[in-house]
């Protein structure tokens, strides 16, 4: 079944690539009305939107999905429930297709909810306590966004329209923009909803490659991109998103510097890059944000598949410190990891360079005259992106190995096919997208200082990354602990928030179902204290009673 699914996904990728070429070169968008039912004067139709952004994104999703299924042939070969895994991945891709291609809000909700449900089932795939806890925090966080999207659909229905491409101005439109922003923040794991993203690494690595590159995490960014004209009607949209995205970017980069779990480092890297997309949207640059979404999906899927190969080789150990000396054993894997990290850092002429360089230069020009603090935080987060990528490469590729002596390292040809395809896309994907599909995306004419800022940030990040591998962190330091716990968002969302959120339901349970209203509860509490005091006074030794009787007799004699 894996082989058949892979072939089907490859054929769909080629089909959507042809559709993408036709749509983009015709400079037009097409809406296809699919009539489901026609009775008397009533007809039910579903629109399908084929525009440049949707077709490019769908082609990218299908390309990554086919590469992930190719990788899963060997990674999940010993799994006893492979068929269930394949069905869940197909449902996941189908939900993403509903979200991308159907501008109808009800079908969009179907895709949005489908992503949440299938991601929960995939995160708890291994059926253990850790997976269940990660799945619950993922599902509950995403349910907040589902509720916000449901309220938005109700508001839009109240205005009399269902399509996301033609909302008109009304008093309820700014409220819709605020609710859509909250929904996108939960799905894209922006602060304070960030803790579920590293926890979702409990899923199998092929799922992580699909979820954290082009589907679940980027769904919030794509939702804001689709609703961007509506979002701008809310006056606080840009400043609010600017602050949230900057804090998320800085927190994710700092946490990745303190993390030692390979998959969690890549997950925090995804969180940082998604925050950069949100940051770009807050600067009123939606096309550049979407451009970075496409390029990021290519090299991040490659990085996850390479990490899956490394975990498979090291007997499913994910600790970065137990790996090393891969450069002399796995040349193809070493090349792929190096290319993915270079693209992530924005090295010249890699996929990430074309979008990330535009973001850095645009931010420099826009923020230098408005807010120096935001600009400083953005620069620090971008430098730390290069720093944790350098730290990752030094530990895995060049450092000494600390794996068991019986370690056997080899490159599987089946897995290498998906690695080679994504490596080629990580090199040329940015150029292809820029030259062929995003034209005319004119390069802004910036000053020489802005042009030199990007390479200076990369060099600073490399120096910081090399220094971080030589320096031993003091584990009892409050700063290091805060970064390890994502600025304490992890304990707040997993321990404190559930306890506080359960207080009111428990009180309501006692009030209504168990019949304990306030006054009987207080009387019961007071009577319990009184009875406990009386019982304690009666549970005394014989000597206490003799002493009390002696004191009474002496008091009577003295009175006489």
Automatic annotation (TrEMBL):
Q: Which UniProt keywords apply?
A: Electron transport, Membrane, Mitochondrion, Mitochondrion inner membrane, NAD, Respiratory chain, Translocase, Transmembrane, Transmembrane helix, Transport, Ubiquinone
Q: Which GO terms describe its molecular function?
A: NADH dehydrogenase (ubiquinone) activity; NADH dehydrogenase activity
Question: Which segments cross the bilayer?
Answer: 44-65, 85-102, 108-126, 147-165, 177-197, 209-228, 240-258, 265-283, 289-311, 332-354, 374-398, 419-437, 449-467, 542-559
**What are the residue boundaries of the NADH-Ubiquinone oxidoreductase (complex I) chain 5 N-terminal domain, all occurrences included?**
37-85
Xref: InterPro entries: NADH_DH_su5_C, ND/Mrp_TM, NU5C-like, Proton_antipo_N
Keyword Aminoacyl-tRNA synthetase among record annotations: no
Compartments reported by the entry: Mitochondrion inner membrane
Query: Does the UniProt entry include the keyword Transmembrane?
Result: yes
Q: Name one Pfam family in it.
A: Proton_antipo_M
The NADH:quinone oxidoreductase/Mrp antiporter transmembrane domain covers which part of the protein?
A: 106-383
User: Which GO cellular component terms are attached?
Assistant: mitochondrial inner membrane
Q: How does it sit in the membrane?
A: Multi-pass membrane protein
EC identifiers of the protein: 7.1.1.2
Per the record, what are the reactions this protein catalyses?
Answer: a ubiquinone + NADH + 5 H(+)(in) = a ubiquinol + NAD(+) + 4 H(+)(out)
Tell me which residues make up the NADH dehydrogenase subunit 5 C-terminal domain.
388-558
One of the GO BP terms on file: electron transport coupled proton transport
What PANTHER family does this protein map onto? NADH-UBIQUINONE OXIDOREDUCTASE CHAIN 5
What does the function comment of this entry state? Core subunit of the mitochondrial membrane respiratory chain NADH dehydrogenase (Complex I) which catalyzes electron transfer from NADH through the respiratory chain, using ubiquinone as an electron acceptor. Essential for the catalytic activity and assembly of complex I.
UniProt family annotation:
Belongs to the complex I subunit 5 family.
Q: What name has this protein been given in UniProt?
A: NADH-ubiquinone oxidoreductase chain 5
> From which organism does this entry originate?
Perinereis aibuhitensis
């Amino acid at each position: 079944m894996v082989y058949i699914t892979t072939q089907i996904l490859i054929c769909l990728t080629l089909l959507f690539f042809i559709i993408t070429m036709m749509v983009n070169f015709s400079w037009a968008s097409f809406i296809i009305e699919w009539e489901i039912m026609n009775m008397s004067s009533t007809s039910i139709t579903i629109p399908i939107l084929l525009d440049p952004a949707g077709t490019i994104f769908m082609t990218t999703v299908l390309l990554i999905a086919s590469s992930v299924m190719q990788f899963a042939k060997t990674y999940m070969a010993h799994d006893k429930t492979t068929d269930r895994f394949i069905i869940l991945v197909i449902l996941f891709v189908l939900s993403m297709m509903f979200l991308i291609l159907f501008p109808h809000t009800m079908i969009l909700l179907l895709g949005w909810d489908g992503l949440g449900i299938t991601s929960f089932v995939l995160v708890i795939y291994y059926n253990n306590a850790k997976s269940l806890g990660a799945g619950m925090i993922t599902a509950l966080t995403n349910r907040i966004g589902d509720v916000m999207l449901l309220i938005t659909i109700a508001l839009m229905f109240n205005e009399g329209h269902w399509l996301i491409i033609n909302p008109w101005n009304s008093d309820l439109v700014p409220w819709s923009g605020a609710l859509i922003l909250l929904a996108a923040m939960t799905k894209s794991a922006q602060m304070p909803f960030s803790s579920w993203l590293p926890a979702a690494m409990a899923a199998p690595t092929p799922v992580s490659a699909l979820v954290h590159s082009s589907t679940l995490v980027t769904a919030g960014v794509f939702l804001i991109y689709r609703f961007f004209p509506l979002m701008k009607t809310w006056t606080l949209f840009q400043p609010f998103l600017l602050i949230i995205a900057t804090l998320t970017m800085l927190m994710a980069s700092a946490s990745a510097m303190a993390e030692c779990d390979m998959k969690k480092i890549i997950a925090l890297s995804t969180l940082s890059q998604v925050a950069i997309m949100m940051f770009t949207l807050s600067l009123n640059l939606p096309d550049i944000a979407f451009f970075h979404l496409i390029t990021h999906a290519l090299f991040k899927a490659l990085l996850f598949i390479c990490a899956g190969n490394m975990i498979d080789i090291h007997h499913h150990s994910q600790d970065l410190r137990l790996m090393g000396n891969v450069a002399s054993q796995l040349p193809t894997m070493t090349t792929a990891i190096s290319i993915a990290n270079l693209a992530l850092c924005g090295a010249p002429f890699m996929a990430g360079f074309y979008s990330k360089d535009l973001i850095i230069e645009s931010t420099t020009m826009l923020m230098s005259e408005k807010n120096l603090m935001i600009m400083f935080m953005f620069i620090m987060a971008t430098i730390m992106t290069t720093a944790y990528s350098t730290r990752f490469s030094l530990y895995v590729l060049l450092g000494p190995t600390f794996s068991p002596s019986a370690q056997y390292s080899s490159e599987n040809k089946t897995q290498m096919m998906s690695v080679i395809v994504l490596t080629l896309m990580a090199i040329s994907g940015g150029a292809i997208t820029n030259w062929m599909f995003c034209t005319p995306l004119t390069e802004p004419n910036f000053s020489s200082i802005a042009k030199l800022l990007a390479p200076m940030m990369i060099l600073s990040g490399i120096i910081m990354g090399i220094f971080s591998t030589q320096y031993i962190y003091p584990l009892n330091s409050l700063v290091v602990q805060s970064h390890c716990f994502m600025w304490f968002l992890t304990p707040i969302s997993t321990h404190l928030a559930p306890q506080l959120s359960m207080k009111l339901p428990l009180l309501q349970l006692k009030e209504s179902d168990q019949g304990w209203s306030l006054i009987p509860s207080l009387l019961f509490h007071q009577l319990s204290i009184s009875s406990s005091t009386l019982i304690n006074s009666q549970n005394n030794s014989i000597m206490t009673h003799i002493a009390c009787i002696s004191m009474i007799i002496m008091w009577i004699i003295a009175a006489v």
